[in-house]
Design brief:
Elements: H1 20-30, E1 34-39, E2 42-48, H2 49-55, H3 68-71, E3 79-80, H4 85-92, E4 99-103, E5 109-114, H5 115-122, H6 125-134
Parallel strand pairs: 3-4
Antiparallel strand pairs: 1-2, 4-5
Amino acid sequence: MQVGDLVSRDVQVINPDTLLKDAAKIMRARNIGLLPVCDDHSLVGVLSDRDIILRSTARGSKPMKTRAYEVMTTEVICCFADQEIQEAVTTIRGKQFRRLPVIDRNKKFLGFVSLTQLIALAGDEKLTDKVMIRIPQPVRV
């Protein structure tokens, strides 16, 4: 089975010129903390809620004037749709991600794949347990 068989395609995408205030509104409305940034369907980065806080707000930038490209993460660990699941697991071994962007060989963004789904299908129970321990779980108070 290939990674592309698992990809979740119902993903909100923004472009590099999106204002941070608009990106934050999307994150709030969808209850997400990560948005893929695409230029003409090609993945050029990701914008996380952490990027907005640490690279913009903490530096005094105004979210009404700052664009996604100014603070987005451009070095993104991705997997290819045509990769075997085990290859993708090997690629992200040791990373603490909940999901990975999936692209084709032309860098076209296809969607996300869940890390736990990848590992479970790879049949590596020890790795699944290890990853689940390391991924911070939400705490309700």
